[in-house]
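Lecture notes, continued. The same structure-token format from the folding unit now serves as the input rather than the output. Read the line below as a description of shape only.
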């Protein structure tokens, strides 16, 4: 009803005003879909290692296995799943991804809840862990497919040929994602802290909260994507030209060949290489910084500050991309090159302090070194997210609509592969005093 009123008001003011009103309503629905989806995903991703530690308090093996197996599965399956974006009907694909994704999270939460009846580290819990992992693979696959469909397919079609609108949509979607990356874990962390230290209570209530959120938000997500589809004629009139192959391995091979021959391949590879790093606020870096003596409160605050720096990058991207009387202020390749080199320069001091620490252990204390590393990693996220947005829009604008899903699927697969590489190196160089090897590799 509200949408119809806004559209009617816009049309009363003229055709151009009506189109602008339509775009505003469509944008709001897209933002809400991203908000609901990103908040749930971030909360679930944060809850997994925390709740796993409550079930298996003496080992990190479940968390490591979960991460490694999931990323390996995504590397194999994403080039195949990317073709779904190119071949399947848009609305049907989005609705299926939303329903299956939320259903997989609900089932995983039920299995996690069931571990509380067996006691900590019971052998039965490992069977439940395998079932959680088996359910998580299709769930994560559909999350990635839905993200590609929304950001790489729907958003460019909604923006049509308006590059400025596309920049605005990309920037705001990234702001929403980064905000959820901060707020989701923070909210869930406060809830767990309020629940106390009893692992059974924490696992039961934690899994129940995530379960309820995903179950309740499934329908609003489906309604929003349906409204976007109904309000944007281009989504209905732009038809897919690719035909699905019956053999998934043929799709796998064709997807990689298509990616390898496309001019965007090197830009996508440069983006994927950034995932081969421990110099980001992840589990490996946080564990090392805690080992050298950085306080937990500072580590927790760094996640929030990193999100703020990311928001600054998302805010700065449209400014760098903005138009002047002479044309665009900066082209997308120029923004990408500028931001990635700035990010590199922000990481150079980390290498310097690591070398000083190894050469003169007395000259530089571990706590001081840890704070220096944390500062440059967190602030450098501004340039990293600018590069992310520039590469994303390059892919949107320079890859044809009918192959964009397969190209995006291959790019996602490479990103997952490099995550596996850094975790594999972490298993080899697992001692804290060997962290410098992972740092130099990054």
């Amino acid at each position: 009803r509200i949408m119809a009123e806004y559209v009617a008001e816009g049309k009363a003011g003229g055709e151009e005003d009506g189109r602008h009103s339509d775009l505003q309503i469509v944008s709001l629905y897209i933002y809400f879909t991203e908000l609901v989806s990103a908040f749930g995903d971030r909360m679930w991703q944060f809850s997994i290692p925390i709740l796993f530690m409550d079930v298996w308090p003496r080992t990190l093996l479940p968390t490591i296995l979960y991460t490694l197996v999931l990323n390996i599965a995504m590397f194999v399956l994403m080039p195949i799943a990317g073709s779904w974006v190119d071949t399947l009907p848009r609305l049907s694909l989005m609705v299926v991804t939303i329903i299956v994704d939320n259903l997989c999270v609900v089932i995983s939460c039920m299995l996690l809840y069931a571990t509380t009846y067996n006691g900590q580290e019971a052998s039965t819990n490992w069977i439940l862990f395998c079932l959680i992992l088996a359910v998580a693979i299709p769930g994560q696959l559909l999350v990635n497919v839905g993200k590609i469909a929304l950001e790489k397919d729907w958003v460019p079609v909604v923006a049509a040929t308006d590059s400025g609108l596309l920049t605005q949509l990309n920037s705001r979607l990234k702001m929403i994602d980064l905000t959820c990356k901060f707020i989701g874990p923070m909210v869930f962390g406060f809830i767990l802290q309020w629940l106390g230290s009893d692992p059974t209570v924490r696992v039961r209530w934690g899994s129940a909260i995530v379960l309820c959120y995903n179950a309740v938000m499934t329908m609003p997500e489906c309604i929003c994507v349906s409204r976007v589809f109904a309000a944007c004629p281009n989504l209905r009139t732009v038809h897919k030209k690719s035909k699905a192959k019956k053999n998934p391995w043929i799709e796998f091979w064709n997807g990689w060949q298509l990616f390898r021959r496309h001019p965007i391949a090197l830009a996508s590879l440069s983006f994927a290489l950034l995932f081969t790093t421990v110099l980001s606020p992840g589990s490996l870096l946080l564990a090392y910084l805690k080992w050298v003596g950085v306080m937990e409160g500072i580590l927790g605050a760094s996640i929030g500050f990193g999100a703020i720096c990311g928001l600054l990058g998302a805010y700065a991207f449209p400014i760098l991309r903005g138009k002047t009387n002479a044309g665009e202020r900066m082209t997308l390749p120029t923004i990408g090159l500028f931001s990635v080199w700035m990010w590199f320069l922000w990481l150079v001091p980390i290498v310097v302090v690591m070398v000083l620490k190894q050469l003169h252990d007395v000259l530089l204390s571990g706590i001081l070194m840890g704070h220096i590393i944390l500062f440059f990693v967190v602030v450098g996220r501004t340039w990293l997210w600018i590069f992310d947005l520039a590469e994303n829009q390059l892919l949107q604008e320079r890859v044809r609509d009918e192959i964009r899903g397969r190209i995006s699927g291959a790019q996602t697969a490479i990103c997952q592969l490099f995550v596996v590489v850094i975790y594999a190196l972490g298993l080899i160089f697992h001692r804290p005093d060997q962290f410098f090897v992972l740092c130099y590799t990054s």
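Point for the exam: The beta strands are 323-324, 327-328.
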